[in-house]
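Illustration 12: HlyD family secretion protein.
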Amino acid sequence: MKRKVVKAMAITLSILVVAVGVYFVIKKYTGSKGTASNNSFLIQTVRKSDITVSVKATGSAYASVIKEVAPNNSGELKNLNVKIGDTVKKGDVLFKVESEQLRQQLNNAKSNLETQKLKLESLKKQLENLNSSENANNNTNNNAQRTSAEDLQNQIDMQELQVEDAQNNLNYAQQQYNNMTVKSPINGVITAINNNNGDDVQSGKPVLTIVDTSSLKIKASVDELDISKVKAGQKVKVTFNAIENKTYDGVVESISDMGTTQNNVTTYDTVITLNDISGVKVGMTANIEIETASKQQVLVVPVEALIERNGKSYVMVEETNNNSSSAGVNDETNTQRNGVQQGSASSQSQLRGNVGDSGNSSFQRGTQGSNNRWLTNVNGRLVEVKTGIENENYVEITEGLTEGQRILVTIPQTSGSSNNTNNTQRRNNMGGFGGGIGMPGFRQ
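Figure caption equivalent — predicted structure in token form:
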């Protein structure tokens, strides 16, 4: 009895081992759902479309004109009647710095000028009296009087210079006194105030800051891998996280020659001027798209359609068997007519590769819903193409295809941990086509 039980357990264990082995073998060779080997395909029509190549970056708004306003003299701060956020115009009075020294200097200059003027008037009066006396004496002692008159005239000339110097000193003292009242040098907004009325302030030390909001620009950090594509004068599209549903136009103004490295990533400051700054405030985060190249109405295909082998580029062009029903081929929607659009297996027509016993690949195309219409035995052939400019979604075709041709576009299914597939990997991986150029079911 004991031997029968042991024998039964051994048989059961063997069956389990075989079952587990079969499971893993099947899983290995069939692949699981969502892996790169389980690809979907779309039929797309080659069409003409505009294509733009751009460099993306982030940055922030800043004011290119900022003035820190400081007094011209030291003294007591008075008449500070502005506050942060106030808008001021050029020439508006901001504050006054009272200085007793400058006040006394002005008074002394005024007094000195009056003194010098009185001296001048006295000399002129003496000369006038001397001339009158000479006429009355009928030329008596004429030589002596003439000498005295010449001396007086020389003194008058010297005194006139003294008056002129005194006037210049007064003008300077008056200017210094006037400078105690500080006016706004620009139009702008008060963004900082460092002192209060009654404080003792120093000459040249800023009391407040004014920002010219009309001088707002964008400073973007462009990656070193992209900076060679960016040139002054290129068009820019800018959006702000804080401003919804609005895109701003601008141009690249300048590019820094000095890079900044942080966390082993080097970026270059790029200054962008905006055509319109309404609603933009200093410090707002900006999303920048710099147009580095563009073409209008050229043939384009999705980047997923491009296959690269041995330095050459190919596209898989659809071939339908003669006995296939052309009625099963549905035209694409109007939204696709404006350019080749990438789709997903859940929302658009798709092709799935099924390798039969003969080794040939056959594909079925259909749409989901109650009106499923299938086209069987769809084959493709590789066509060598020449490419032009390219962005993250589309690539320009300059040779090899014509408008209206139908092509097969692979959409690799990735694992659940990631929904993004590198375009280079897509091009170098013929997933679903059997791998390599000369695969069964497709002609070159």
